[in-house]
């Protein structure tokens, strides 16, 4: 490996089950590689269904003691985990950049973002309130909320730290236990988090991390095991649908944060410089590999040419390369296959009449690189309109009226995030209420934080993560009727 850590013990390659670092029963491993260089970072243990069952059993046994603690005591463990993550930010960022490819600056930002969920839910976990329902008779209705139990989580490679803490923090805060399968591309970040959780005093069994290549075996056990009461997943819509079907047989609770096809709607009256800056951030963050990335830039015809000119000038200053290099603004995409898929979409759009303003080719830096790209002369029949690109490609579409923009924005089965740029207050309300998305940023694309309810509608998922609403998916509501109060 070409990187060094201040604390080398954060680099783990075993599974984490019941508080112990263990090998898989079959002795199998898989290589984790750096997408920027192709270098092998580690041979990580690969587990399957049997180890998953063992982890679920450990989580179930750990529940009673964890739930018996006062919320403040659980909070203190999460606070310490938060502290240790921040104290080890640089090492965690180096690990993330090595296995995921994003720049060190972006990795550091994700570490802070991920830690913020632990801080937030350490406090929110103390505020799981119920209700008293009055009655005209000698009865009272009491509503309490209790932890759902063992939670299975499956997380993606694009945010290998924050997508874990966003799920683990609320679950642990209210008294649940978690069995986690991280993405095979980025298990090292998850394993480092588990090491810090152990150091923070999280009791054995409450967080289990199961790296592995056999996703069907691990996921199949998670969805079929009756001890698991909830499955939470962040990833593609097809996989989310499959998991929901598998969970139906045991009627598990599910929360799904799935695919997106985010529009950025820029009206003639928008602050053009603000819109350009917002679109740049929304489109090219993490080299276009975020679920709320701008997928379609919808620009009103009166400012279309001016926007494309300014947008292109800004993109021309991007520098792609290894994320550890200070001059790099954008790293590789996650795999060579991902780069090839992106190029196929671009080529098809060009064949159908799209014009490449800048980019449009694989990068020369390596097999996982793709040039930041802008496409014009695109239409709503192309794949780049219909499908999530998940790469550094910005198709810029033209619209004429407000109604036209709303129609184009809603012309998708997805509904995660959307962005609107306008100075017209009436239009802000009309458009925000008319577009079918779970989150809308107005004159802003940096919309995510631990304090907001993150999630989508339609085929972008169900449930919300973060904010006070983020506890709901890990709680059951129980009604207790107390009678005989007049005796």
From TrEMBL:
PANTHER family xrefs: SUCCINATE-SEMIALDEHYDE DEHYDROGENASE, MITOCHONDRIAL
Organism, as annotated: Neptunomonas japonica JAMM 1380
Coiled-coil annotated residue ranges, if any: none
Protein name: Succinate-semialdehyde dehydrogenase (NADP+)
Any GO BP annotation: gamma-aminobutyric acid catabolic process
Pfam families found in the cross-reference section: Aldedh
Alphabetically ordered keywords of this record: Oxidoreductase
EC number assigned by the record: 1.2.1.16
GO molecular function: succinate-semialdehyde dehydrogenase (NAD+) activity
Similarity field: Belongs to the aldehyde dehydrogenase family.
Residues covered by the Aldehyde dehydrogenase domain: 21-480
EC supergroup of this enzyme: oxidoreductase
UniProt cross-references to CDD domains, sorted A to Z: ALDH_F5_SSADH_GabD (cd07103)
Record-annotated active site: 257
């Amino acid at each position: 490996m070409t990187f060094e850590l201040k604390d080398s013990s954060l680099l783990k390659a075993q599974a984490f089950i019941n508080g112990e670092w263990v090998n898989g029963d079959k002795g199998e491993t898989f290589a984790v590689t750096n997408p920027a260089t192709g270098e092998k970072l580690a041979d990580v243990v690969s587990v399957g269904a049997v180890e998953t069952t063992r982890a679920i059993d450990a989580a179930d046994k750990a529940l009673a003691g964890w739930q018996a603690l006062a919320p403040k005591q659980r909070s203190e463990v999460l606070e310490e985990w938060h502290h240790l993550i921040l104290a080890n930010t640089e090492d965690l960022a180096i690990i993330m950049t090595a296995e995921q490819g994003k720049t060190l600056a972006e990795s550091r930002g994700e570490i802070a973002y991920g830690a913020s969920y632990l801080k937030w839910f350490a406090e929110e976990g103390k505020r799981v309130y119920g209700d008293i329902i009055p009655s005209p008779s000698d009865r009272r209705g009491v509503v309490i909320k209790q932890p759902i139990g063992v939670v299975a989580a499956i997380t993606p490679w694009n945010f290998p730290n924050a997508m874990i803490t966003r799920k683990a923090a609320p679950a642990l805060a209210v008294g649940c236990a978690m069995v986690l399968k991280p993405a095979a591309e980025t298990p090292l970040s998850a394993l480092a988090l588990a090491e810090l959780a152990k150091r923070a005093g999280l009791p054995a069994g409450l967080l289990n991390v199961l790296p592995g290549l056999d996703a069907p075996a691990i996921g199949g056990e998670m969805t079929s095991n009756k001890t698991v009461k909830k499955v939470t997943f962040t990833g593609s819509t097809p996989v989310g649908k499959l998991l929901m079907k598998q969970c139906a047989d045991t009627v598990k609770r599910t929360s799904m944060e799935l695919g997106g096809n985010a529009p950025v709607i820029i009206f003639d009256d928008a602050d053009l410089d603000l819109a350009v800056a917002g679109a740049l951030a929304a489109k090219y963050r993490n080299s276009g590999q975020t679920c709320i990335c701008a997928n379609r830039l919808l620009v009103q015809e009166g400012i279309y040419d001016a926007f494309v000119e300014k947008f292109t000038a800004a993109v021309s200053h991007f520098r792609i390369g290894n994320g550890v290099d200070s001059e790099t603004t954008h790293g590789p995409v996650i795999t060579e296959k991902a780069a090839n898929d992106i190029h196929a979409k671009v080529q098809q759009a060009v064949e159908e009449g799209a014009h490449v303003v800048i980019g449009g080719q694989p990068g020369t830096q390596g097999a996982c690189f793709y040039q930041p790209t802008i496409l014009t002369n695109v239409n709503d029949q192309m794949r780049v309109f219909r499908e999530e690109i998940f790469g550094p490609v910005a198709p810029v579409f033209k619209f004429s009226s407000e109604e036209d923009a709303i129609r184009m924005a809603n012309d998708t089965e997805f509904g995660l995030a959307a962005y609107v740029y306008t100075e017209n207050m009436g239009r802000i309300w009309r458009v925000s209420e008319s577009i079918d998305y779970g989150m809308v940023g107005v004159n802003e694309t940096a919309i995510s934080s631990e304090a907001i309810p993150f999630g989508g509608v339609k085929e972008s998922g169900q449930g919300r993560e973060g904010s006070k609403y983020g506890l709901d998916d890990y709680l059951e509501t129980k009604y207790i009727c107390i009678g005989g109060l007049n005796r």
